[in-house]
């Protein structure tokens, strides 16, 4: 059983996929599997993946387009690693020692959260102040977890953390079985933090996020129909989380922070 499972959901991002896969397979830490979930992509995803002769790659082809959220969860259900990591297909790890550096840090924690920077193009990045601002902390309570999320430096995205597989399994039954392409990470984060017992954060920068102008969440590049889909996803995600927070007794302490975040994301 590998120590780590790296999950990459792919839909219509074949242009960037080689860079993403190479940044994973070239890691100096080698005890991992790479699970690529082809979300019924219309491009040549399968041909690109089959060009790699590496037994660590596990290719899964969906029969229909499910959206990013369900594709990630399909990857989780097929993972056998002790810890799970996610990489979006148009992003990449910034050097070859990321896994080797991060895995010793997690120790007995459920989640290890690290920082990322923004890549100015899909092939390279310019070192800069990280967009996420984790510092060295050990967190052990809901109050600490959610304060870091809403007021501190804890990012809500899936791609800058390592998570115990058992923790992911614990939230899968609670996840909406819905086609979601935007803000889906926020639901995952809220549920993971609620079930976690210990979280470690580090200022380590290991991930480059490419602000892809043609992605499913880049509103300026979308048709009117897809813009409506994006806004409907936002509405669904924030309603889901608001109900979750009220059900779990989190609203009184963190409801104002949540509403501030909601207003920020709606104010494009």
Jot down its keywords.
268 residues, alpha/beta, Spore Coat Polysaccharide Biosynthesis Protein SpsA, Chain A, 9 strands
Q: What is the level-2 CATH architecture name?
A: Alpha-Beta Complex
Number of domains: 1
Between the first and last Cα atoms, what is the distance in angstroms? 45 Å
Please name the CATH topology: Spore Coat Polysaccharide Biosynthesis Protein SpsA, Chain A
- Sheet with most strands: 9 strands, mixed
Kindly estimate the percentage of residues that lie in beta strands according to DSSP.
15-25%
Form type: globular
> What is the name of the CATH class?
Alpha Beta
Write the layout of secondary structure elements.
Blueprint: E1 4-10, H1 14-25, E2 32-38, H2 45-50, E3 57-61, H3 68-77, E4 83-86, E5 92-93, H4 98-106, E6 111-119, E7 137-139, H5 142-150, E8 161-164, H6 165-171, H7 184-195, E9 199-210, H8 224-247, H9 251-266
Parallel strand pairs: 1-2, 1-4, 2-3, 6-9
Antiparallel strand pairs: 4-8, 5-9, 6-8, 7-9
Helix pairs in contact: 5-9, 6-7, 7-8, 8-9
Give a structural overview.
This protein is of the alpha/beta class and 268 residues long. It has one domain: Spore Coat Polysaccharide Biosynthesis Protein SpsA, Chain A (Alpha-Beta Complex), CATH 3.90.550. The chain has 9 helices and 9 strands. Strands 1, 2, 3, 4, 5, 6, 7, 8 and 9 form a 9-stranded mixed β-sheet that branches. Helix 1 (14-25) links the parallel strand 1 (4-10) and strand 2. Helix 6 crosses helix 7 and helix 8 (224-247) runs antiparallel to helix 9. The longest helix has 24 residues, at 224-247. It starts with a strand and ends with a helix. The relative contact order is 0.16.
């Amino acid at each position: 059983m590998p120590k780590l499972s790296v999950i990459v959901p792919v839909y219509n991002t074949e242009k960037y996929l080689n860079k993403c896969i190479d940044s994973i397979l070239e890691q100096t830490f080698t005890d991992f599997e790479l699970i690529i979930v082809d979300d019924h992509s219309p491009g040549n995803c399968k041909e690109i993946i089959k060009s790699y002769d590496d037994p660590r790659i596990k290719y899964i082809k969906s029969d229909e387009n499910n959206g990013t959220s369900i594709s990630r969860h399909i990857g989780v259900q097929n993972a056998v690693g002790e810890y799970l990591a996610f990489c979006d297909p148009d992003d990449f790890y910034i050097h070859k020692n990321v896994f080797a550096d991060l895995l010793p840090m997690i120790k007995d924690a459920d989640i290890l959260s690290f920082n990322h920077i923004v890549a100015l193009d899909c092939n390279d990045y310019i070192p800069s102040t990280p967009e996420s601002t984790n510092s060295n902390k050990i967190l052990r309570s809901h109050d600490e977890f959610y304060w870091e999320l809403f007021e501190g430096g804890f990012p809500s995205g899936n791609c800058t953390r390592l998570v115990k597989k058992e923790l992911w399994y614990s939230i899968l039954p609670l996840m909406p079985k819905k086609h979601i392409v935007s803000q889906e990470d926020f639901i995952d984060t809220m549920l993971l933090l609620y079930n976690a017992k210990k979280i470690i954060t580090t200022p380590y920068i290991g991930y480059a996020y490419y602000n892809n102008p043609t992605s499913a969440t880049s509103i300026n590049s979308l048709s009117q129909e897809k813009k409506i889909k994006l806004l409907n996803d936002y509405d669904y995600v924030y309603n889901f989380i608001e109900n979750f927070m009220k059900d779990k007794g989190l609203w009184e302490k963190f409801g104002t922070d949540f509403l501030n975040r909601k207003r920020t994301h709606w104010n494009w």
